[in-house]
Amino acid sequence: MASKNSSPPEVKTLLTGLAMGESPRWHEGRLWFSDWGAQEIVAADFGGNSEVVVRTQFGLPFCIDWLPDGRLLIVSGRENRIVRREADGSLVTHVDLHNVSDQGWNEIVVDGRGNAYVNGGPGIIALITADRSVRQVADGIAFPNGMAVTPDNTTLIIAESHGKRLTAFDIGGEGGLSNRRVWADLGNGVPDGICLDAEECVWYADVPNNRCVRVREGGEAMQTVSLDRGCFTCILGGPSKKTLFMIATEWRGMDKIPEVAQTRTGQVLTIEAPALHVGWP
């Protein structure tokens, strides 16, 4: 049974001065994330020591995840392609997404079988298989955002920001999605980035409500972390796999993104969570 925590957790600050952080992943002992406003991919250890690993030539959005062989994938959203970082640090095109949609792309998750799911544009999800074939597997998503795949590779959960819900799909043997259903109606919650824990709960970041919320299937809120700025995304990780990393930034609207990036109000905040990270990312 999922544990419920009503006492406010201690929120600690790991990093400050980000332009606009997104797409956090705990990978090989460090927290990796995209800083959209600075056009950088950054890695930081648990002590807050950080380095810029990749500088990109493309603007936001650019989300990240890894292939099973360890190569980094980066969604170049405005260019409608996914690029791959080779062992020598060079960036090459992994797949071109124009044939599926030329309306921009956003989030990515690579599951345990090496299938990559990417969303964006007109509310769709595309599947990129290990042989780099691409096909659309879902549509009608109300502003698709964060995605997560359960540890058994059978369920994909996506945040529908404008729908104020988390939606689940069954994953078929060849990676297709079916049996669409509402996993959690969030009321006034506006989900952005998400991650899964071992008690079958989802943490979701919420920009307009300045919070990060842990919910169980059906929508019951198990824990809420209130912040002083918009929470864009979250991931569980750290040495214990129970540290929740939250990326928060002042939000002033889509038309003020350049202004927000220049003021560098972004932070990486942490709490100790009640359950371990599972699944992907």
Short description:
With 281 residues, this protein is an all-beta fold. The chain contains one helix and 25 strands.
Structural commentary:
The protein is 2% helix and 53% strand. The protein is mostly beta strands. The protein has one domain: 6 Propeller (Neuraminidase). The strands form six sheets. The protein has a five-stranded antiparallel β-sheet with strand order 21-20-19-18-25, with no helix packed on it. It has a four-stranded antiparallel β-sheet with strand order 1-24-23-22. 48% of the residues are buried. The mean pLDDT is 95.
SSE blueprint:
Elements: E1 12-18, E2 21-27, E3 30-35, E4 40-44, E5 50-55, E6 64-66, E7 72-76, E8 81-85, E9 91-96, E10 105-110, E11 116-120, E12 124-128, E13 134-138, E14 144-149, E15 155-160, E16 165-171, E17 177-185, E18 191-197, E19 201-206, E20 211-216, E21 221-226, E22 230-237, E23 243-249, H1 257-263, E24 266-272, E25 277-278
Antiparallel strand pairs: 1-24, 2-3, 3-4, 4-5, 6-7, 7-8, 8-9, 10-11, 11-12, 12-13, 14-15, 15-16, 16-17, 18-19, 18-25, 19-20, 20-21, 22-23, 23-24
Helix count equals 1
Query: What distance lies between the first and last C-alpha atoms, to the nearest angstrom?
Result: 23 Å
Question: Which fold does the CATH topology refer to?
Answer: Neuraminidase
CATH architectural type = 6 Propeller
Name its key features.
281 residues; mainly beta; Neuraminidase; four-stranded antiparallel sheet; 1 helix; 25 strands; globular
